[in-house]
């Protein structure tokens, strides 16, 4: 599944190790919205943890 531009932004910042609250502040959105984006990412990538998302991010974008 394709990611939205916002999901890509959230994933990139998540890969920097930032918390939901810091991601929210950086993107000027609610931390609840960040949580929703991360849930969507987990579902789309068929993984169950933030660490797995970050591993996929580095695997896909830094080959």
UniProtKB/TrEMBL annotation:
Keyword Cell membrane: no
Gene Ontology terms for molecular function: DNA binding
Originating organism: Marinomonas alcarazii
Superkingdom, taxonomy of origin: Bacteria
Keywords from the named record: DNA-binding, Transcription, Transcription regulation
Residues passing through the membrane, by range: none
Gene3D superfamilies per the UniProt record, alphabetical: Winged helix-like DNA-binding domain superfamily/Winged helix DNA-binding domain
HTH luxR-type domain mapped to chain residues: 1-61
Cross-referenced PANTHER family: DNA-BINDING TRANSCRIPTIONAL ACTIVATOR DEVR_DOSR
Keyword Disulfide bond: no
One GO BP annotation of this record: regulation of DNA-templated transcription
Protein name: Regulatory LuxR family protein
């Amino acid at each position: 599944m394709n990611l939205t531009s916002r999901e890509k932004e959230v994933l990139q910042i998540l890969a920097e190790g930032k918390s939901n609250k810091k991601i929210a502040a950086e993107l000027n959105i609610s931390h609840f919205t960040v949580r929703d984006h991360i849930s969507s990412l987990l579902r789309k990538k068929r993984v169950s943890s933030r660490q797995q998302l970050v591993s996929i991010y580095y695997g896909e974008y830094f080959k």
